[in-house]
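Hi F.,

I've been meaning to write this up properly since the lab meeting, where we talked about keeping a consistent format for the predictions we share between groups. The idea is simple: the sequence comes first, exactly as it goes in, then the structure tokens exactly as they come out, then a line or two of notes. No screenshots and no reformatting. I'm using this chain as the first example so we have something concrete to point to.
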Amino acid sequence: MPVTAPAAELAADAAPAVREPAEQATGDATRADRESIGLIGAGRAGSALALALAAAGHPVVAVVTRSEVARARAAARFPAARTGSVEGVADTLRAADVVLVAVPDDAIAPMARQLAALGALRAGQALAHLSGRHGLRALAAGVEPGAVRMAMHPIMTLPGDQDDPELFAGVPFGVTADPGAAALARRLVIGVGGVPLAVDDDRRDLYHAAVVLGGNFLASLTLAAREALAAAGLSEPAVALGPLLRASLANALATGWPAATGPVRRADVGTVLAHRRALADADPGLAEVYRALAIFTTDELARADLLGEAPAARLRAALAPETGPHLGR
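Output, unedited:
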């Protein structure tokens, strides 16, 4: 198992220090000395981070793309960089201080192996990726040439303007790094305005699953609720949901399970059964999602001593699979 930097090392200086004007001037004078970047994959996340790094003073010297359209777009965004295939810019990648692999998850390890085989990696260089799921093992091919490894995952979606250099301001990054790369990873994240959060290498799968639960599936539930409201006849379901969702999210982030409200928290079995019936008529799949979430919520509220044993038992009985959604019609 790879050795990773301890959490304390990654967490140090998580918030950039306020500098006096003289210090700011000194920092600006050394911008040209900051690490150069070689980018593999000029998609949404890679381009956004590379642009933010460039705005922070890190020259982007090479960009690997697969299509002519992407190459032209990369050339416009990074006019000083060599663009082309990985074979065509391998020597420039080798000269870069940081090689940033911004490709789909399943392509990270093969790309790292290809970079090593082409001689595009060297001792003293940093090899990084942006995946949430993967840690350092996906970059194992960089070890033999002497590169240090970093995983820097921005915990955010990127639907907006990727050309905004302030895009990552205040954004947390899940960071895993070799001990020799921890300080650099922290500095790169802070340099684009982000907040580095240490993630153990052997817990990346759980970390990423948690992020997906909170991010992707929150969107899924929101869209499902919106569609159900539309089916119920509301002409503007987003307007109806907005204040409720924003308040629920803020309260849950602030106080945890005590923020829970609704029929499960009140142990209102009749309402829960009515919901199951209505959802089963509209969308049986969504009725099963509701049932699973209601069971989970019941169990968690009981574990937090926010729901008594008797009410929890009644809810579990009402939510059992054999308790058909048509019960009590």
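Notes:
Strands lie at 37-40, 60-64, 82-84, 98-101, 126-129, 148-154, 172-177, 195-198.
The two ends are 57 Å apart (CA to CA).

If this format works for you, I'll send the rest the same way.

G.
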